[in-house]
Amino acid sequence: MRAILAVSKAVVVAAIASSALAACTGNTNAPVQGYVEGTYVYVSADHAGRIVARPATAGATVAEGDVLVRLDDSDEVEAVAGAEARLAKADAELANLRSGMRPVEISVIEAQLSEARANFDLAEEEYQRQLILREKGVVAQAAVDNAKARRDAAAASVAAIEHQLEVAELPARPEVITAAERNVVAEQAALAQSKIALERRTLAAPEGALVEETFFEPGEHAAAGAAIVSLLPDANRKIRFFVPEPRLATVSIGSKIAIACDNCPKGLEGEVTFVSSAAEFTPPVIYSKDVRDKLVFRVEAKPLGAAERLKVGQPVDVTLPAGAGS
Question: Would you say residue 201 lies in a domain?
């Protein structure tokens, strides 16, 4: 890392010195020096885990969606299975509450009702018989009262079972069904979360890129948030160079620049995407003409076409567009 920083600083110093020299010598058409810079994407896992596979290899090119790393997902697989089972149970309970009792259960209550009605009929007949015997003076009033009590008890039993049958054919109370519906929604959300956690155990490339470096091998344990693979997408390369203050008017956002480098094909181009609003070094408050000639401004450009394949850290010569500063 120190070596990379030293090289970058050397390139920056050389670029600034070259730009200042061109300004001092009056050669306003001379190229300015710059270098290729890259912004890396570091792929990491949300949660710690053991790496079971790492298809990505340094120097290889990957497309969007290509698998880079697979982490052990046995716990997540079990979590998904458990969530699916709980959701199935919640669905079944809700369906049961909405439909009432099963036909077999209702048939049992209907049989109990038939028996209760038969008992009532017998109790009614006995009560009527006791009334006749009492009128003839054969039995005492107590016998009639007992028969009436048995008849009334049988009638109450019939009424109770009839109500029980009505309730069995009805769905559950609205508030009970609402609670069961909310339970189903909660189990659905839990299942979705479990599936997301399972999906995140496989790390895929967010876009086409060059695999710059790998930091873990299969079998190793990666901590949460630790970079496992670094990617350099083509769109993340940029040309950084420094423009003397007298030539600053020749560049603006969208300006096309010509790029040249050692053993590179001719005709490489870039498009300016950033122009610094402040000089790299701040001189005294009073700016003379000589001081302005020594000011340089940082400019960044997006490589176009074949220039996207330039290597990070590679020095380049940048030819600015002709303008008022030429």
Answer: no
Residues contacting residue 104 through CB under 8 Å, at least 6 positions apart: none
Q: Of 196, 192, 233, which is closest to residue 42 (Cα–Cα)?
A: 233
pTM beyond 0.85: no
Segment 106-120 shows an average pLDDT of: 89
The total number of residues shown for the chain amounts to 326
**Is 203 inside any structural domain?**
no
Same domain (yes/no): 179, 155 = yes
- For residue 199, tell me if it sits in a domain: no
Is the domain of 221 the same as that of 239? no
Range of the domain at 310: 2-43+234-319
pLDDT in tens, 52-100: 999 999 999 999 999 999 999 999 999 999 999 999 999 998 988 887 6
Residues pairing with 221 in the sheet: 50
> In the predicted model, what is the mean pLDDT of residues 279-307?
68
Tokens matching residue 252: 């603006």
Q: In this structure, how many other beta carbons lie within 10 angstroms of the beta carbon of residue 78?
A: 12
200 part of a folded domain = no
Query: Do 86 and 172 lie in a common domain?
Result: yes
